[in-house]
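Hi R.,

Here's the input for the NAP complex you asked about:
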Amino acid sequence: MRLENRVAVITGGTRGLGRAIAQRYLEEGAQVLCAARRPHEIDELVQLHPGRVHYQPVDVTCPKSVDALMAAAEERWGRIDILVANAGLNRDGKVDRLPTESWDEMVATNLNGVFYCVQSAARRMVARGSGRIITVSSSMSSRVAIGAAGYSATKAAVETLTRVSAIELGRKGVQVNCLAPGVLEEGMGAEVADNPKVWEAYRSRFSLGRAGTLDEAAHGAVFLACAESSYVNGHVLEVNGGLLWA
Ligand SMILES: NC(=O)c1ccc[n+]([C@@H]2O[C@H](COP(=O)([O-])OP(=O)(O)OC[C@H]3O[C@@H](n4cnc5c(N)ncnc54)[C@H](OP(=O)(O)O)[C@@H]3O)[C@@H](O)[C@H]2O)c1
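And here is the predicted structure with NAP in place:
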C-alpha cells in the first residue's frame, strides 16, 4: 500500500495507460479521480473500489475545464497529492501533408493540455508545500520515425516542460517527473503492436523483443508517485523494453 490515502488526479484515466495507472494506484491504496471527455471503461474500477475512484469530465485543451477538474478533486478530498498528466493523442502524417488541424489538435492536447494541468495542480500543491506531478511523454520524444513529426515534437516539449517545472517547483515541495513509455500492447500502441507489417519493422529495435503491457508502464507511474522516489526530480523514466533506435 505505497499510496495509502494519497489523492491522485489522472487525465485520460478512463482507458488505456491512464486507466491502468488508476488501477495500480487504487491497489496501492490511493483515492483517484479519473478524468477525460468520456467515461469509457471506468465502471469496472468504480465497482471494484467503491468510494475511492470517481469519473470527472474534462477537456484538457481548455484551461477552465482543467481548473474545474482540480477544484473538483479538492472539493471531494481536500487536496491533490499526485497529478498524472497522461491524456494525449496521435495524428500521423508526413510534414508536407499533415493537416494543420491535426498538428493543432496534438499541440492543444499533448502540450497545452499538459501545461494547463501542471500549472493548475502546481498552484495548489505549492500552497500546501507538497505534491508529485508526473507527465507522460513517449520514447518518440527523442527518436525519429516517418509521420511522427507532430507527436514527437509535442512529446519532446513535454519533457522540457517537465525539467523546467522540476527546477522551479522542487524547493517548494513539488517533484515533477515524466514517464516515457515505448510501444505498449494496448492504447495507442496497439496500432503498432497489432499490425504485423509495422510490428516487424519495430520488433528488432526492442532489446526485449516485445511490446510492453499497460501494467508494466503503470508500475513506473507508481514509482514516481511513492516515497521510494523521494530523491528523484526532473527525471524522464523510459519504460520501453530497452529500445534501440538505429
Ligand atoms: N499506449 C502506448 O503504447 C503509449 C506509448 C507511449 C506513450 N503513450 C502515451 O500515454 C498516454 C495515454 O495513451 P493511451 O495509449 O492510453 O491512449 P488512449 O487509449 O487513446 O487513451 C487516451 C486517453 O486520453 C483521453 N483524452 C484524449 N484527449 C483528451 C482531452 N482533450 N481531454 C481529456 N482527455 C482526453 C481519452 O479520453 P477521451 O477521448 O474521452 O477524452 C483517453 O482516456 C498518451 O499521452 C500517450 O502519448 C502511450
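One thing worth noting: The longest helix spans residues 100-128.

Cheers,
M.
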